[in-house]
Amino acid sequence: MPLLTTPRTTRPRGPALRQLARLAWGISLGFSTACASADGTAPPTVPPTVLPPVSVDPRTLAPYFPPTTGAAWDTVSGARLGYDTAALTAALDWAGTQRSTAVMVLWRGRIVAERYWKGWTPAKDSIIASASKSVLSAIAGELARSSRLSLDSSATRYLGAGWSRSPGTEPRITVRHLMGMMSGLNDSLQAVVQPGTRFYYNNPAYYQLFGVVQAASGESVNTLSRRVLFDRIGMSGSTWVPNIDTGELGWILSSTARDMARFGLLALNRGRWNGVPILADSAWFTASWRATPPDNAGYGLLWWLNGSSSYRTPGPYLFPTQPGALIPSAPADLVAALGKGDKKIYVVPSLELVVVRHGEEADASAGNPLAISAFDEQWWRKLKLAFRY
Predict the structure, then answer these.
(1) Distance between CA 130 and CA 110 in Å, rounded?
(2) Could you give the strand order of the β-sheet that contains 125-127, starting from the edge strand earlier in sequence?
(3) How far apart are the C-alpha atoms of 233 and 141, rounded to whole Å?
(4) What's the CATH code, domain 59-387?
(5) Best CA proximity match to 107, nearest among 151, 153, 75
(6) CA 109, CA 73: separation in Å to the nearest integer?
(7) For position 363, what pLDDT does the model report?
(8) What letter does residue 61 receive in the DSSP assignment?
(9) CA–CA distances in Å: residue 114 to residues 26, 81, 381
(10) Cα dihedral angle (363, 368, 370, 375), rounded to 10 degrees?
């Protein structure tokens, strides 16, 4: 059953038509009773009119944005959206068995499902690892929109000379190269290939972007983020903390599941919040959701992209290209912020969905993958049954 495709001929009748039906039935019943009383015979049995239940076509619901303060957040039932609610419950239950601490599903901004485990609550935050890369992407996009940052300028313009261990190559590495994981550097910041020619998921090179955005804005990353993003959409449970997980110099975002969902909702609406431009613009999201490295159709500007014919995951420079889509069971237009330990923010424009997962790595024996993992495909295989796409 396609999402929200009730045929016109089977839609519930409007209130006026139902009132008219009730009135006609009442007049008919009163007339029959009056006739029966006149000749003393028993009135005929008149079966009650069965009216369809009152319902509102969910397509008439405008996109919703939760208040920036307080806990209020509108909901909508999966049944009302035409989802298979039994399959959705099964998918959520399964996620709970996979070391998840929180999951959320939003449709047009309204909460369809929200679950917590292991003592978690909507107010609890924890690091979201590399899922925070997509947040930094949007902040960099805002600086680019305001002409305070040029993606095609050398990163050295903002960092100064000597930030890498390859002085000959360093001036040719642009901000875009850093954002597309194609700096040409290895984990020791030494040149291995020419910038822009090869995808390599390089956290030490990525962390240089914090110096870039802070130099471009003249603000600390937390001050900048609160000003342009967190305070404006209610991400009050988010803050950048020094990276203590891997020992690399940089920052990682600590967020609640609801803040992750808020950011996903902003991305779903291409940087607008309740009609107000908040962060970057639609052109930025279009650019960041376009394959950027020449050898990885599954990666944009710090976003993971589904629906391509091949992709590359974190691994050595010579790590082979994988055939097929990043998450085969997910919609082709899905984009995702993915982090170590299975931190997930999925955005699906075609279904107007945001899906969030917080917690520990689902399979502790799988080597704690940095981004994509077996969990993604396994969960979307179950969610596909629920969303009926």
Answers:
(1) 26
(2) 125-127, 251-256, 239-242
(3) 17
(4) 3.40.710.10
(5) 75
(6) 9
(7) 86
(8) S
(9) 45, 16, 19
(10) 0
Tell me the β-bridge partners of 338. 344
| Residue whose pair of structure tokens reads 């901000």 in the numeric block | 175
Q: What is the C-alpha separation between 87 and 217, in angstroms, rounded?
A: 47
Where are any strands of DSSP class E within 243-384? 251-256, 272-273, 276-277, 304-305, 310-311, 322-323, 335-339, 343-348, 353-359
Whole-angstrom distance, CA of residue 276 vs CA of residue 294: 35
Q: Tens of pLDDT along 37-94?
A: 333 444 444 344 433 334 457 778 999 999 999 889 999 999 999 999 999 999 999 9
In whole angstroms, what is the distance from residue 311 CA to residue 295 CA? 8
Angle at 361 between CA 358 and CA 367, to 5 degrees: 155
Cα gap 230→227, rounded to integer Å: 7
Do 77 and 50 meet the contact criterion of CB atoms below 8 Å apart? no
Q: Which of helix, strand or coil describes residue 343?
A: strand
How many other CB atoms sit within 10 Å of the CB of residue 304? 27
Burial class (CB in 10 A: 0-12, 13-18, 19+), 177: buried
Give the C-alpha separation, 162 to 168, whole Å.
10
- Locate 260 and state its tokens: 């992750």
Residues 6+ apart with CB under 8 A from 121: none
User: In degrees, to the nearest 5, what angle opens at C-alpha 384 toward C-alphas 378 and 387?
Assistant: 140
Task: Name the residue ranges covered by the structural domains of the chain.
Answer: 8-55, 59-387
Q: Is 167 helix (H, G, I), strand (E, B) or coil?
A: coil
Site of tokens 């279009």: 286
Q: What is the pTM of this model?
A: 0.85
Q: CA-based angle 283:288:290, to the nearest 5?
A: 100
Closest CA to 348 of 311, 296, 386: 386
The pair of structure tokens assigned to 301 is 């500007």
Maximum CA extent, the chain: 110
What angle, rounded to 10 degrees, do the helices at 374-387 and 85-96 form? 160
Res 293 pLDDT > 80: yes
Question: Dihedral of the CA atoms 28, 31, 35, 36 (nearest 10)?
Answer: 60
Could you tell me how far CA 197 lies from the centroid of its own chain?
Answer: 29
Write down the residue that tokens 């950011």 correspond to.
263
